[in-house]
Write a structure and sequence with these properties.
There is one protein chain. It contains 15 helices and twelve strands. The protein is of the alpha+beta class.
Length: 387
């Protein structure tokens, strides 16, 4: 088993940097008084994830501090996941900016890692790190410490041995403290502990600790992306009560949805609209489409119908659109009468029919009423009519 871990710690800061047109300037994103994402320039200036905002301001007077806005990062994050899903069979997002990928069938791990990094950078415009290993544990540590490296199963124990015990991110805090109390400060020291000693101290957990110290973790990558639904959102700070503005917003969301569905080669059969209101609460409606749809114009038309059904009773602060009942796109009936083709109407139809007879013969075409219906279908039709 070979697993990759994708980490995008600068995702939020890079998105904000683009919004602010602040290329080359330090940008940091904060949440609840602490820095959660920094751009490369901010990191070079001494800012770090986890710092308090006041500390960050003291470290760099030039840094642009921006509050965390999750809805702004969902689009770029999904674009990165779409890029991964195009290369591997199974994608498991863990949180914003972190995902595990099953590399089974993706070819040689080191080459797959390089392809994933390039795809995320090219498709989503984000800089990230990717590491691979025989388990989720090893893959994440590789992504953090030695990006672009693929650690093989025979290398895992030696790769982990010199690292501090705190690098075993899958361990519970209580277990970590008990091991440290026993004098175990590195993963290598845990590897050296006899299994009998581990059993005496940790009972049935001993086997798991023994395996983890060697990078053995049988947790598989869960197929969590693409999700069974696709959702796009648009925040409206201050609230909007103009129907025209809401319709314009819906057209933009329809275009974004169509792009997302196209990347996944999927169409939807159900669409739902949710409006969050300034006064609290929400208004929502859903609609089942007549046929699977993936076109921006058709999605936009469906959303306009839904908006007509739920005229907002108060200013709207957020518009969310979700599509479900996804299916693979199938071939569509082409229009015989394109702008450059024959004329519409009776004359156009006659021209098309004449051309088809000349190419395929006079017996190639027949009226639908003259086509013989198989006996089985006639019987089924009779049963349906109750005859």
């Amino acid at each position: 088993m070979s697993i990759a871990c994708l980490l995008l710690p600068r995702l939020a800061a890079e998105v904000e940097q683009g919004i602010l047109s602040a290329a080359g300037r330090p940008v940091a994103v904060y949440r609840r008084g602490r820095i959660v994402s920094v751009s490369g320039e901010a990191e070079a200036a001494g800012l770090q994830v986890g710092q308090r905002v006041r500390t960050a301001e003291a470290v760099s007077a030039e840094v642009e501090l921006v509050p965390f806005a999750g809805e702004r990062y969902e689009g770029p994050w999904c674009a990165a996941l779409d890029a991964c899903a195009a290369l591997v069979s199974t994608v498991e997002p863990v949180e914003l900016g972190q995902a595990f990928l099953d590399l089974h069938g993706a070819g040689e791990p080191a080459r797959a890692v390089a392809e994933i990094e390039a795809a995320v950078r090219g498709h989503a415009g984000l800089s990230g790190t990717v590491g691979a290993g025989s388990s989720k544990l090893v893959a994440r540590i590789a992504a953090e410490l030695c990006p672009s490296r693929a650690v093989g199963p025979d290398e895992a124990a030696a790769f982990l041995a010199p690292l501090p015990l705190t690098r075993l991110w899958v361990l519970e805090e209580g277990t970590m403290e008990r091991l440290q109390a026993l004098g175990v400060s590195t993963i290598g020291l845990l590897q050296q502990m006899p299994l009998s000693q581990l059993r005496e101290a940790f009972g049935t957990e001993a086997g798991r600790l023994h395996r983890l110290s060697r990078g053995v973790d049988h947790a598989a990558v869960a197929a969590l992306y693409p999700p069974p639904t696709v959702e796009v959102r648009q925040a409206l700070p201050g609230g909007v009560d103009s129907t025209e503005v809401l319709r314009s917003c819906l057209r933009q969301l329809a275009a974004e949805l169509a792009e997302r569905l196209a990347r996944r080669e999927q169409a939807c059969s159900r669409i739902a609209l949710r409006l969050e209101l300034e006064e609290g609460g929400h208004a929502s409606r859903s609609l089942r489409l007549r046929a699977p749809c993936a076109e921006a114009e058709e999605l936009g038309f469906a959303l306009q119908r839904l908006l007509d059904r739920v005229p907002p009773p108060a200013p709207v602060t957020l518009v969310a659109v979700r599509v479900g009942e996804l299916s693979r796109c199938t071939a569509r009936q082409l229009d015989l009468f394109t702008d450059t083709g024959p004329r519409r109407g009776t004359e156009g139809a006659a021209e098309v029919l004449d051309a088809a007879r000349r190419q395929f013969g006079t017996h190639a075409l027949a009226l639908g009423t003259e086509v013989e219906v198989p006996r089985r279908e006639r019987m089924l039709a009779a049963l349906t009519r109750g005859v």
